[in-house]
Amino acid sequence: MDYDKNLNDNYFEKENQNNITNDSMSNEYGEINFVMSEPLIKKPKKRRIKSVMGYIALVLAAAIIGGLSGSYVTANMLNAAVEEKAAESSINAQEVKINLTDDVYFAVAVAEKSQKTVVGITTEVERQINTFWGPQKRTEQHMGSGFIVDSNGYIVTNSHVIGDGNYKNITVSLIDGSIETGNVLWYDTNLDLAIVKINKTRLPAAELGNSDELMVGEPAVAIGNPMTLDLERTVTQGIISGLNRSIQFEDGTVIEPLIQTDASINSGNSGGPLFNARGQVIGINTAKMTSAEGLGFAIPINIIKPVLTQVVTGGTFVPVYVGITGMDIETYEMLYGIDLMADYGVIIIETMKDSPAREAGLQPNDVIIEIDGKRTEYMVDIQKKLYEYKDGDKSEFKILRNGEELKLVLTLKNRPAGI
């Protein structure tokens, strides 16, 4: 499947490794370019080695002074030192504090805090191709990135990284070199998000930030596996270039709102984290513009937070639905040349039979402007809000109908399979 997409005559490349197989890991010019960053003023101090050496010195002194009793003390203190070092190796990212007043470049501090939470994801996808001898099945191997969000093995990535659910095998590469089998617990092709679980515990988990508080111009750091696992956990840095961006793909799917960044994002970075200067995940890298450099896009982390809560606590996620097809006002007016009596909102194109929308009285041409008091501008706003509800919950929709504001209460239902 081709993931090159377009919006306003610009072409975007969705970071799907369906375009990259094992025998094609370089760029279109057959080379991989490396960008050298400015030299560091001061390297982070390696305190753990000094701490362990201090223990060993103290233990040796005890052994010399105490004779046989010192030997007993020595054994116990050595065990304590080993246990402390083992505990340090499993420390979570949120326990590492970044002091932005230090003379250490922020990207170095972010990498030290969060690099161990980033994983490589290799997906085997079985595809049918037409040949001279008829249809044949071929197994392709694609590579992407992800990051650990819970120490019990829960990982966030893109939906297209796991073949939008059409995968044969998934393997996850950890920073210690181990390889684990991944199982998909949830994915959404419209949001391009997925949650994968591996059977391993006591893993370092990334700290999640608040993407609703982002400002244009603030620093950003991307970590992922561009092109190949040989370049695993590559760190690139830049700024937040824009907010609330949207991309429309060839199949008509629109992903919005997105974070735009000039931190370098390449094939293989898909599903990897975008961090702020404090080492908190603010987005999931998903796409880049192929016609220009320095234009990458990430899905805001807040979109997946409600899903994570349900999956981690309950093991699964069953979404509710409204039962409409719709479009944001701005896009609708641009496509059809119609000036609607609304400044913002989602216009309903169609309501589905036996859906909560139709049962509550929603109609085509109604414009949804609020859900339970929260402003609604895009279809993804509705999707994000619905992640907060479960089967049978009620929600108040404020709509515009022929210029008049109305409020309708919907009883939400679990989304049927296939919708």
Plain-language structure description:
The chain is an alpha+beta fold and about 425 residues long. It folds into 3 domains: about 1-40 and about 105-315, Thrombin, subunit H (Beta Barrel), CATH 2.40.10.120; about 45-90; about 320-415, PDZ domain (Pdz3 Domain), CATH 2.30.42. The chain is built from 6 helices and 23 strands. It has helices spanning about 45-90, 105-115, 305-315, 330-335, 355-360, 380-385, and strands at about 5, 10-15, 120-130, 135-150, 155, 170-175, 180-190, 195-200, 205-210, 220-225, 235-250, 255-260, 275, 280-290, 295-300, 320, 325-330, 345-350, 365-370, 375, 395-400, 405-410, 415. The strands form 4 sheets. The chain has a 6-stranded antiparallel β-barrel. It is globular. It starts with a strand and ends in a 5-residue tail after the last strand.
Number of strand elements: 23
* CATH fold description of the largest domain: Thrombin, subunit H
Q: Helix-strand pattern, N to C?
A: EEHHEEEEEEEEEEEEEHEEHEHEEHEEE
Which of globular, elongated, flat, extended, rod-shaped describes the shape?
A: globular
* Mean pLDDT over the residues: 77
Radius of gyration: 25 Å
Largest sheet: 6 strands, antiparallel, barrel
Q: Report the structural category.
A: alpha+beta
Our count of domains comes out at 3
- Give the proportion of residues in helices: 10-25%
Helix run count:
6
* Low-confidence runs: 1-75, 85-91
The CATH class of the largest domain is Mainly Beta
Residue share in β-strands: 35-45%
At CATH level 2, the architecture of the largest domain is Beta Barrel
State the end-to-end CA separation.
21 Å
Which strands sit side by side, in order, in the main sheet?
10-11-12-15-14-13
